[in-house]
Amino acid sequence: MVLVGSHGEKDGLNDDAVLDYRGNPVDKSKTGGWLPAGLILGCELSERICVMGISMNLVPYLVGDLHISAAKSATMVTNFMGTLNLLGLLGGFLADAKLSRYVTVAISAAITSLGVILLTVATTIPSMRPPPCDDYRRQHHECIEANGRQLALLYVALYTIAPGCGGIKSNVSSFGSDQFDVTDPKEENAMIFFISRFYFGISIGSLFGVIVLVYIQDNIGRGLGYGISAATMVIALAVLLCGTPWYRFKRPQGSPLTILWRVLFLALKKRNQSYPSHPSLLNDYENRKVPHTKRFKCLDKAAVLDDDCAASTNKNKPCVVSTVTQVEEVKMVLKLLPIWSTCILFWTIYSQMTTFTIHQATAMHRTVGSFVIPAGSFSAFLVITILLFTSLNEKVFVPLARKLTHNVQGITCLQRIGIGLILSIAAMVGAAVVEKERRERAIQKEIKLSAFWLFIQFFLVGSGEAFAYVGQLEFFIREAPDRMKSMSTGLFLSTISMGFFVSSLLVYIVDHATKKSWLRTNLNKGKLNNFYWLLAALGFINLLVFLILASRHQYRTHLPIKPESREEELKSLNNEMIEDVEKKASIQSLKNIEP
């Protein structure tokens, strides 16, 4: 099994080699392609079934069964989702540094299965819930809230699921893309199509979770609903393991965080060193794997060959001097951070779809004939919109954009993100208007507004996610260094994580600043619409910052290609030196003729 080691044990194979499960060079006719990529996709499909089935219907359980306040319940859900996505960074780090993507996904799937089984137990045992509460006591806030002992198993279950799902999310798309050879034009096109189908596939899993599982949880039993989620993850893990002979594997190539911190440390340590007259004099310049750039020039000092590095033996010691490739990889990561920061607020707005929007549905008219639609199932509008716009992007918007812009991509990843941000702002404006109307009707006319009005915010956020999610995922994978691919996916997931944590922070600040007058369990006594207006205003400011940063971003594929030979580099260096001498001579001549 490969489950080969980190740094290549087999002679003649470099760290970039693609191997089969026995550690031998792959036979492309027998490995990789759509079949193994599809088996890998099953893990993400099951992960979405679990996460959506839990997150989209957890607030009604916390408020209705455990009698926890709406603001606290929303914070519990966003903290759980934030932690889940943040641990994607850990999963990416472990895969890149030591375990490999395959092993990380397999272990993460097993951990997720255990967590969902624990959640099934936590929601099934009667002693894990406080006494039932009738409507009269609920209106007068006399319900007994679940105590620490009753919440303990629930917390253990949720925070066992979090690292498992985080490890799957940060590696499964990268492991799937490893099944295609990007140097083969045919397979490269198949990989691009796979990324699109990957997102479409996980949306199907989300739809199953919010419609089928939420209905089972509300009408048959939460234990059964969560039990089905656990079973799907166990089956997905078994399928993943069965496909092992057909996968293509890449060795872990060392910790990207180690490279990051080492370059920053050496650049700081050598800050007083002079820059060489030409970049080709930097360490290992002739063997660089990415083009040298002039941005963040201060980091080049980490690759400066000073007296301590003069000996040929010291040139290969990473603790003494970095290579140009390592410095450029760190530059690539740093270039992602400005765009990364502006993606956070989109997910803060998205998080409202799993918390306060679901809570709104519980206070609205949800009956169709004699059938009462579960509050959590209204999030199906979100998933359906995502599926619709994912297809429209591929069939309509992108081909149209290609004709208008003459760009192969049609819509660039940054343009997708920008469209997503605009739609998220519109969603919060729509949500504020709907909530104001719902509250006025409930108070003045004692009429419940139809919950189908929530379609406005679900539609706008869903269409925004179809653009933003794909745009962000493509941006981080394409722009990050190749050997940090899993880490870059984790970095993308951290924007989602920070979005949920920012939501928790905003709820805390608003709840205290307004003395609990905006965010109330009884929405008729609160002013949730003001919270939505606040998010719309913050989203608009964030959009302006994004537009400025995006206009200054230089795509990785647009960077100049390095000269093909050392002779060309020396010729370039010689020409630059001649131009420099001529420039200085011209300046001196001008000085000589000054009066």
Give the C-level CATH assignment of the largest domain.
Mainly Alpha
Tell me the name of the CATH homologous superfamily of the largest domain.
MFS general substrate transporter like domains
Mean pLDDT: 81
Globally, the shape reads globular
SSE string, helices as H and strands as E: EHHHHHHHHEHHHEEHHHHHH
Helix content estimate: 55-70%
Structural class: mainly alpha
Beta percentage is under 5%
CATH architecture of the largest domain: Up-down Bundle
Note the main sheet.
Answer: 2 strands, antiparallel
Topology-level CATH name of the largest domain: Growth Hormone, Chain: A
As laid out across the biggest beta sheet, the strand order is: 1-2
| Number of spatially distinct domains | 4
What is the radius of gyration computed over CA atoms, rounded to a whole number of angstroms? 27 Å
Poorly predicted sequence stretches spanning 5 or more consecutive residues: 6-11, 558-570, 576-595
Total beta strands:
4
Distance between the termini: 81 Å
Number of helices: 17
Describe the structure.
The structure is a single chain. The chain has 595 residues and is an all-alpha fold. The protein has 4 domains: 16-253, MFS general substrate transporter like domains (Growth Hormone, Chain: A, Up-down Bundle); 254-306 and 317-325, no CATH class; 332-556, Growth Hormone, Chain: A (Up-down Bundle), CATH 1.20.1250; 558-587. It has helices at residues 34-55, 58-64, 70-99, 101-124, 135-139, 148-177, 185-219, 222-242, 256-269, 324-351, 356-362, 380-405, 413-445, 455-479, 485-513, 528-552, 566-592; strands spanning 18-19, 249-250, 367-368, 371-372. The strands form 2 sheets. The chain has a two-stranded antiparallel ribbon with strand order 1-2. Strands 3-4 form a two-stranded antiparallel sheet. The radius of gyration is 27 Å and the shape is globular. The relative contact order is 0.12. It is found in: Membrane.
